[in-house]
Design brief:
The complex is a heterodimer of chains A (328) and B (328).
Chain A: H1 2-30, H2 38-45, H3 51-86, H4 98-111, H5 116-139, H6 146-170, H7 176-184, H8 194-207, H9 211-217, H10 221-226, H11 231-253, H12 259-271, H13 275-299, H14 308-326
Helix pairs in contact in A: 1-3, 1-13, 2-3, 3-8, 3-11, 3-12, 3-13, 4-5, 4-6, 4-11, 5-6, 5-11, 8-11, 9-13, 12-13, 12-14, 13-14
Chain B: H1 8-34, H2 37-52, E1 58-61, E2 67-70, E3 77-79, H3 82-90, E4 97-100, E5 117-118, E6 121-122, H4 124-130, E7 134-138, H5 144-152, E8 157-160, H6 165-179, H7 182-203, E9 209-214, H8 228-235, E10 238-240, H9 254-260, E11 264-267, H10 276-279, H11 288-291, E12 295-297, H12 301-304, H13 310-326
Parallel strand pairs in B: 3-4, 3-7, 7-8, 9-10, 9-11, 11-12
Antiparallel strand pairs in B: 1-2, 5-6
Helix pairs in contact in B: 1-2, 1-7, 2-6, 6-7, 7-13, 8-13
Classes of the chains: A mainly alpha (328), B alpha/beta (328).
Chain lengths: 328, 328
């Protein structure tokens, strides 16, 4: 009876968030520089409609919206995982240097004039390379502690930051705007949403049964070990999956800030700290927030286009501060 | 008899082609003196290609060696850089431009064109909705993802990349072919090249003047020999003190300028009535340029954009260097 009750308690917010996500995606498909009426939209979605409307919705809006959803979801889940792993409220997907590694590799390939899809591959490689580097260094010869991991990650990120600044300083003037937009995070780079969506779906399915162990781990590794959790393998798999999630997010849309840090906190303030609920909720909320932010970014001062990263912070900061203020 | 019954449009085209043939021979002769064989060959090949077609079809080779073919002269052109807008107007195709990016401020008519974003981030929806039959992209400045996506959506895209005076002339000719305005395009290209030749004959062999061109103040930036500013300085018989630096617009220090001790300092960037950039050099009284008061302003829009307006900037620059020679 209690189990059924718990399941109901978890499924109500998730159903609500799913509905909200669908609403955001629907909104993003409806809104744009070109006005498309509801009946035209329906015609396109049911397989007909004018060719122009088909192109606008099926080639531009829908792929971009799905890519935004996947990226936001990946970042929020990765952030939630990192916060559990490091037991540090300031942890976000980028704290261990993943975005820095991705950015260095991506900007380098941009500077060498390589085609866009190679830039994406380079970003993915850079992110995973940085993750392996940080993990290897913090493993080192001594014991492996989260403090050591965090410290190594922060220092490696600063190193990447210096390399990025150097590349911006010596990069050719015409290429600077492109490089800056990449660093700010921008969905205009997202071409195909499928890799990110598939990775989001797969990791969500894999993480679901780990929820209980994650709950225990969040209270500390000693307690987790005492309660029969295999701490070391669990920590490794969290680190690995968070890295993979972040790498795919950065590959899709550059380094979009804020979502990975704040969405998990927001959800904890509202829903409590149960990872079985927080992780899927983070996927939905992060996705919906980024879809909303990107829709605003491309319409708010159209035809000028803003990077989505600006809007995520502008939307998220007041929301988060309000929740934090109320929670006292 | 059949010949006499040719439709007037086709007859007009035939005479255009004959004219453009004469012009391309002229360009070729110019190129031979200049060593710009590859470009002249490209123009020549494109002219041959276009004249080989009996119908209205026209093809040119763009600056990334793609062949751009149109079934008939372009009627709805979108220019993705302020420079491309100017070149289209120069090619006599200004009335066929339906939209441009921000800062497309020359000629006066260009200011009234609908905007589709800025050169480094454009509104894809607005472009698709405008249904252009030709898009002029800027190889160095436009985000490649977006340009590639436009091409995948089926729009003919011409990639421009003008590096010297010959490129400008050949671009005007090629745009003229695509827009079906060969006659005025060829006239303008010839006028431009004749103008360049005039300044070259008059000034290039005069006593060299050591010249520093200031592109920006903070950071202090100049232009190397491959920039249009560098070409213009050479044309006017100047000796660009930073000609040999690697980057197109290198960032340099004040000390480097003092060490090179230029005879003339030319500044762009600031407005006509704001001499602050030039006044900042006055305290350095051991620079020859300061001692002789050879501190001049040239409006940057006339020297930094690849367009026939370069002739205006070159005229002013040559006059300034001539003034400096008079003060020796």
């Amino acid at each position: 009876m209690a189990a059924v009750e718990a399941l109901r308690r978890r499924s109500v917010p998730l159903l609500f968030l799913s509905a909200a996500s669908l609403f955001c995606i629907a909104l993003s498909v409806t809104v744009g520089s070109v006005a498309i009426s509801a009946s035209d939209l329906w015609a396109v979605l049911s397989g007909g409609g004018e060719p122009l409307h088909q192109t606008l919705i099926m080639e531009l809006r829908l792929p971009r919206s799905l890519a935004a959803f996947a990226t936001g979801g990946l970042l929020a889940v990765a952030g939630a995982l990192m916060q559990v792993l490091l037991r540090n409220p300031l942890a976000d997907p980028y704290v261990l240097g993943l975005s820095g590694g991705a950015a260095v590799a991506a900007l380098l390939s941009m500077l060498s004039g390589l085609p866009p899809f190679i830039v994406s591959i380079a970003a993915f490689g850079g992110a995973l390379g940085s993750a392996v580097l940080v993990f290897g260094l913090s493993h080192g010869r001594g014991s492996w502690t989260t403090t050591r991991l965090l410290l190594t990650g922060v220092v490696v990120s600063s190193g990447w930051g210096a390399v990025i600044t150097f590349m911006l300083a010596v990069g050719p003037t015409e290429q600077l705007p492109g490089m800056l937009y990449w660093l700010m995070g921008d969905l205009a780079y997202a071409r195909s949403p499928w890799p990110a969506l598939i990775i989001l779906a797969l990791t969500s399915i894999i993480l679901l049964p780990l929820g209980r162990s994650l709950n225990v781990l969040a209270r500390g590794p000693m307690q987790a070990a005492a309660l029969g959790v295999a701490v070391r393998p669990l920590e490794w798999s969290i680190y690995g999956s968070a890295s993979l999630l972040t790498a795919s997010a950065v590959t899709t849309a550059g380094s979009i800030g804020f979502i990975g840090l704040v969405v998990p906190h927001m959800l904890r303030l509202v829903l409590g700290n149960d990872q079985r609920l927080i992780l899927p909720a983070a996927a939905l909320t992060g996705g919906a927030l980024l879809v909303l932010a990107d829709t605003l970014a491309r319409t708010i001062i159209a035809p000028e286009q803003l990077p989505a990263g600006v809007i995520t912070a502008l939307l998220g900061v007041p929301t988060f501060l309000y929740l934090l203020y109320r929670s006292r | 008899m059949l010949r006499l019954s040719l439709p007037p449009s086709l007859r007009a085209q035939r005479s255009n082609l004959v004219k453009s043939g004469a012009n391309s021979r002229r360009l070729l002769r110019y190129a031979r003196n200049d060593g710009g064989w590859r470009l002249a060959a490209a123009v020549f090949a494109s002219l041959l290609l276009s004249s080989a077609q009996a119908s209205d079809q026209r093809c040119v080779v763009d600056d990334i060696e793609h062949t751009v073919c149109l079934p008939k002269p372009a009627e709805r052109i979108i220019a993705l850089s302020p420079g491309a807008t100017e070149l289209l107007f120069a090619a006599g195709a200004g009335h066929k431009v339906i939209a441009a990016v921000t800062f497309s401020d020359f000629p006066e008519e260009a200011k009234a064109l609908p905007r589709i974003g800025s050169y480094n981030r454009f509104d894809m929806e607005a472009i698709v909705a405008a249904q252009p039959d030709l898009i002029i992209a800027w190889k160095e400045g436009n985000p490649r993802e977006q340009v590639e996506q436009l091409r995948e959506l089926g729009f003919p895209v011409y990639h421009g990349d003008q590096r010297d005076f010959l490129d400008i002339a050949s671009t005007i000719q090629r745009l003229g072919i695509l827009a079906g305005t060969e006659l005025s395009a060829n006239t303008e290209a010839t006028r431009f090249l004749d103008g360049i030749a005039h300044y070259r004959d008059q000034f290039q062999t005069k006593a060299p003047v050591r010249t520093f061109y200031q592109v920006w103040v903070n950071p202090l930036m100049t232009a190397n020999r491959n920039h249009f500013i560098g070409h213009a300085i050479t044309l006017c018989g100047g000796d660009n003190i930073f000609a040999d630096l690697d980057r197109l617009t290198p960032r340099i220090g004040v000390e480097a300028v003092l060490a090179e001790n230029p005879e003339v300092i030319i500044a762009g960037g600031m407005g006509e009535d704001d001499p602050s950039w030039l006044n900042a050099w006055r305290p350095y009284s051991n620079i020859v340029a300061v001692q002789k008061d050879n501190l001049f302003f040239v409006p940057p829009s006339t020297l930094q954009r690849p367009s026939p307006r370069l002739l205006d900037g070159i005229d002013l620059l040559c006059q300034h260097l001539e003034t400096a020679r008079g003060r020796r």
